[in-house]
Write a structure and sequence with these properties.
mainly alpha
Length: 227
């Protein structure tokens, strides 16, 4: 815990306990998203899937970086991560999404695909997951991308909320959250562009997981910039 730094945040009028809870929930969302994106990347096959893999890999590695960047700040403010990973995943601020379960015997998709969300899911996320479940039952995997887009949109809401809470008061948490927010906005634009919702206006990273905004907050540099 950084004692004086925590006192400065308290004196600015921020409820440190509430802020730490928001940061832990954000970290849990990043950790679980990294996990689910790993599964999605492995299952992105075929002509369409190959084009999607690079986008998933960028977002997947950068979400891991977000988790790594958030953890030190949680402990600086006197917080900690839950000791049980199940407790950690249960407080995630954004929804989970499961790939359709397949019948290993004949390769057919199960009619009871697992599609769920955490307690932190918004109404928009729940609606997106409901649409995915319907799509999976109809043999269409493309709606799964809608849940990925919603995961990024949920993250945008989460970090915008933290930025609004800390602006002009907790400068370190604000700058960290703003850096992550910038990358989450780009992730949403990538997936949205793939769905045909409109151009993103920029390209994927030169190196997967580059995290151009968040890398300076990482305790262990990612080494992509050669510094």
């Amino acid at each position: 815990m950084a004692k004086v730094a925590q006192q400065m945040v308290e004196q600015s009028g921020i409820d440190v306990k509430e802020l730490v809870e928001k940061l832990v929930r954000a970290a849990a969302a990043e950790f679980t998203t990294y996990y689910y994106y790993t599964i999605l990347r492995a299952n992105a096959i075929g002509f369409e899937g190959e084009g999607l893999k690079e986008i998933i890999e960028d977002a997947r590695l950068e979400d891991r970086n977000h988790f790594e960047a958030l953890v030190p700040r949680i402990y600086e403010l006197g917080g900690e991560l839950p000791r049980d990973i199940r407790d950690f995943s249960n407080v995630a601020a954004c929804p989970d999404a499961y790939l359709p379960e397949r019948d290993r015997g004949n390769g057919n998709e199960s009619t009871s695909a697992r599609v769920g969300f955490t307690s932190g899911g918004t109404e928009e996320a729940k609606q997106a997951i409901s649409e995915v479940k319907q799509g999976v039952e109809q043999g269409n995997i493309r709606p799964m991308l809608q849940v990925l887009v919603e995961a990024e949109r949920c993250a945008i809401r989460v970090y915008t909320d933290i930025c609004n809470m800390t602006f002009g008061k907790d400068h370190r948490t604000y700058e960290l959250s703003l850096a992550i927010l910038n990358e989450e906005i780009e992730h949403e634009a990538w997936f949205s562009e793939f769905l045909g919702e409109g151009p993103s206006g920029h390209f994927r990273r030169g190196v997967p997981g580059e995290s151009p905004y968040t890398s300076r907050f990482l305790v262990v540099p990612n080494g992509h910039n050669g510094k």
